[in-house]
Amino acid sequence: MARITVPENWRLHADAARERCRALERGDILYFPHTPLHFGEDDLQFLRAQKQSGASYHKNIAYRPAQDRITGYAGDQEERMRAVLGRFSRAAQSLMRECLSPFALEVEYASFRPLAEETRQLKTHARNDLLHVDNFPTRPTHGNRILRFFVNLHPTLPRIWRTGPPLPELLERFGAISGVIEKTRAGAGKQKWLRGFQRLGFPVQSRPEYDRFMLSFHHWLKENQAFQNDPGHARWEFPPMSSWMVFTDTASHAVLGGQFAMEQTMLVSRGSLLEPKIAPSTLVENLIQSRSA
Ligand SMILES: [Fe+2]
Predict the structure, then answer these.
(1) Which residue segment(s) compose the domain that 84 sits in?
(2) Residue 248: which CATH number?
(3) Cα 205 to ligand 1 centroid, rounded to whole Å
(4) Ligand 1 geometric centre to CA of 199 (Å)
(5) What is the pTM of this model?
(6) Who's near 193: CB < 8 A, 6+ residues apart?
(7) What's the rounded Cα separation, in Å, for the pair 248 and 168?
(8) End-to-end CA distance of the chain
(9) 62 to each of 45, 72, 85, 215, how far by Cα in Å?
(10) Mean pLDDT, contiguous 10-residue spans, the chain (293 residues)
């Protein structure tokens, strides 16, 4: 996995968009030493003053673009927070569309992460400092890919990440021995039952096989001490006011330190990928199929 620096004049090189997309699909990080987004000084001061006391159980303040609504905010300036996050989200969306024009993008949530990563007390599966690949517990992606754009808004401290091997390598090493395939299969009966209730109009949600596998694999990686302690993993620093983009369903990652990060998530449709053979959904489907043959 590599960190590829995007030149400041990237807008003049529309022809390089395919190259950028391919790098992301491989699991590389696209890195902008100076974020291409503009943040007003007032907004920065407002965001950096957020303490979120009394809401430490919330990992983030989430912004839902479709409803122009925030959740998880514990302060008394909700209207202002919504406006700031909305501005960020719209700017990040158009940046991602311009920078990665070959991809068909669907807008997901944005978030602001005001807490110092080092001080957070979370359960194992929710911990950010353990290497993992992303999958959403409540919103299955159906094989569409999770693309994330980050900005480090801290005035002086870097955001520190650790990265491990990309998903193709992880599946090769651990896919068959982790027990996740068996777990995924064991859940099939319950899913059939949930789909039946869904058809009858009950407010329940079934999870496709791909998402069941990915969420179990996410948990398994976080629980695996030998994998977490592997000294071969890389460490990256993202300085104040830098940005980066990455497919977090392929690039295994952990956040070791930092505070005040903004993030926009987009789902990339399976049909628009340039390298569908290495898409997580293809790899997982092949793996499950090969084990049932
Ligand atoms: Fe993650």
Answers:
(1) 3-164+234-276
(2) 2.60.120
(3) 22
(4) 32
(5) 0.93
(6) none
(7) 13
(8) 32
(9) 19, 6, 9, 20
(10) 94 91 97 97 95 64 96 92 98 97 97 84 87 94 97 97 97 91 81 74 81 96 95 96 98 96 98 97 94 74
